[in-house]
């Protein structure tokens, strides 16, 4: 083993104060902290007793480049990832042009390498169909060879069941997992909020929860019949959770994700026509929130993601029905998750699993378990610090979050990726 080049001193891992030794971008050893130990010739990063977390992995983001750089570009998105504690992020294909060919994938990877050569690292998700039109499959092998790590039609669900079946079958060749946005477009129609009391009160078209769960059932049936895995994006309803739980009991290769906003907020957030709370799928009922919390705790939901969807201020400053869907989430996700831990809805071990270990295993990406030889991706997190969400404190160009102006618990004090300090609050 190489001699340590860097030491993270006085960090808390598994409730013990320790020093983490790093060489050639990997964990060398972890020893109990010793103030008398000398570190000549080694870079020292002081953790000051704060928590050491594995670098987080976000499997669902929108970085807008190429084509909509005024909302977000790759550099600003990666800066937001670093400030939020993420060492790896996966970006969706709904760019302009769509990421349905090697040229777009290679462009994104090159821009990421220029912007953040030491990370956070970008992993493109290729389009499932050409131009996301749902009529013809994209070239899966070409996308895989260019660097895509998964496939998705993102917010334009594939209605053609035969095409989706073929996509699942062909995805096994390049071994790219399909991520499906589960929504029946005919049932969802023009719904902009959850269908129910709130949609009636606001006079807005509602999207019924069955628009999601019906597509979830379709994917489960195909996964069972074909014996091919599929991953379900941003689950939001009790009906979906119940179907996923039953499928898992029956051995179907289904995995699923949800977002912090579906665990914290319900449809009442849109009162006053609050476009900052407009997302797709929409925020649901209090009962759906409860079901999702239980599903995360029981392992029915496998991972958490941000579904980071940055927009310009003027786009959200529009009539509710015309405003775009989405919340800018990379800057705030860890603090929102920490609020769930404070409420004893999640545990610290849940955080490790949901934001690092499980997505790393699911998408075959490197993750730090703090074992020798693991990548030295370490988030230094102060659970006692609060911070105010503001234009200044958010690195993303998109300031569209219901948290704007609020005080959130816990703050990323530093992010180390492969032994390099890529972000620090100092």
Explain what this protein looks like in three dimensions.
- It is a single chain.
- By secondary structure, the protein is α/β, with parallel strands linked by helices.
- The protein folds into 2 domains: 6-51 and 374-395 and 404-424, Roll (Urease, subunit C, domain 1); 55-362, Metal-dependent hydrolases (TIM Barrel, Alpha-Beta Barrel).
- 30% of the residues lie in helices and 23% in strands.
- Strands 6-7-8-9-10-13-14-15 form an 8-stranded parallel sheet. It has a 4-stranded mixed sheet with strand order 3-2-1-4, with no helix packed on it.
- Helix 4 packs across helix 7 (210-226).
- The chain is globular.
- The protein starts with 5 loop residues before the first strand and ends with a strand.
- The mean pLDDT is 96.
Overall average pLDDT: 96
| End-to-end distance | 31 Å
Question: What CATH architecture of the largest domain would you give?
Answer: Alpha-Beta Barrel
CATH topology title of the largest domain = TIM Barrel
- Profile the largest sheet: 8 strands, parallel
CATH superfamily of the largest domain: Metal-dependent hydrolases
Shape: globular
Strand arrangement within the widest β-sheet reads 6-7-8-9-10-13-14-15
CATH class of the largest domain: Alpha Beta
Low-pLDDT windows of residues: none
The count of helical stretches stands at 13
